[in-house]
Amino acid sequence: MIILKLYGEFTKKDWLKAFNIEEKDVPKSFIIHGAWEYEKNLTIWKDKIVKDIWTPHWNSIIGKLNNQRIGFANVFGGPSAAVICHQFASLGTDIFIQTGYFGGLSHDVQFGDILIVTAAEMADGVSHWYLPDQQTVQSDRELIETAINFCEDRGYSYVTGTVFTTGAIMVETSEIVQKWAKSGHIGVDMETATTLAVARKFNKKAIGLLNLSDHIIKRDTFYSPNKRRDEIKEKTDEKIRELALYLSRL
User: Fold this and answer.
1) Closest C-alpha among 42, 34, 60 to residue 191
2) Are 220 and 111 in contact (CB under 8 A)?
3) Residue 101, exposed/middle/buried by CB under 10 A (0-12, 13-18, 19+)?
4) Which residues are in the Nucleoside phosphorylase domain (predicted)?
5) Nearest to residue 71, comparing CAs of 56, 59, 61?
6) Angle CA 49–147–12, to nearest 5
């Protein structure tokens, strides 16, 4: 296989050739999950997507669920999210659903709430390469409304609002966090702006569905002992997976 182009010049045909696949192998939707636990999350999704599985990368799987082809990738940060979204948006995937976690910037959000992201501020270091003239990027309106209706119908606790997407959570201080909160953001994450921006660049639909992992506005971190938080987080993860699968079938 010889393709005398650079990645940004690849066409759909080039990516099909690079992956050695046919058009029928391309998923209609892709769930992009931002988290450390690659092996755990891939195992969860392999148990859900059990038919005609193929693996484009070590951190991702594609297969069939209810006769529809769907993809899942476990990423961490904007660069790895962008690789998946760029390649599969180029291939023709229509819907990208960012799941994962956020640090709480609002006193009103609670553990157990699903954050339905309406927009993300682009401070991740990746999204500006796709949308150089923007500071924020919006989620797809239809996906937002459908997600809200889903949660309402099932009685799932949710909030809507914006996130600040950063590439460097370890530099967070009380001063920085207060600044983000004063801008009106509900939370901070590492992938949502990237996924939304790449999708927008390719005229695809995308949304973020996030789980509160650490309530940093209250000085709660990953390392604060909180058994109840961890139990709620697991239950909320499953609700988000359920919602993501529902949206993937639109």
Assistant:
1) 34
2) no
3) buried
4) 58-236
5) 61
6) 55
Q: How far apart are CA 207 and CA 195, in angstroms?
A: 8
Q: Strands, E, within 36-135: which ranges?
A: 51-54, 60-65, 68-75, 95-104, 114-123
Pairing of β 68-75 and β 136-138: unpaired
Helix (H) or strand (E) holding 158: strand 158-166
The CATH number assigned to the domain with range 23-248 reads: 3.40.50.1580
Alpha-carbon gap, residue 156 to 154, rounded angstroms: 6
Do residues 53 and 46 lie in contact, with contact meaning Cβ atoms separated by under 8 Å? Answer: yes
Q: And the tokens for 160?
A: 């809507």
Tokens of 68: 């529809």
pLDDT digits (tens, 9 = 90+) for 76-130: 999 999 999 999 999 999 999 999 999 999 999 999 999 999 999 999 999 999 9
66's CB contacts (< 8 A; 6+ apart) are: 249
Contacts of 90 (CB under 8 A, 6+ apart): 10, 11, 12, 15, 202
* Longest pairwise C-alpha distance within the chain: 55
pLDDT at 51: 80
The structure's pTM equals 0.96
Kindly provide the b/e burial profile for residues 164-184, where b requires at least 16 CB atoms within 10 angstroms of the residue's own CB. Answer: bbbbeeeebeeeebeebbeee
What is the rounded distance in angstroms from the CA atom of residue 4 to the CA atom of residue 7?
A: 10
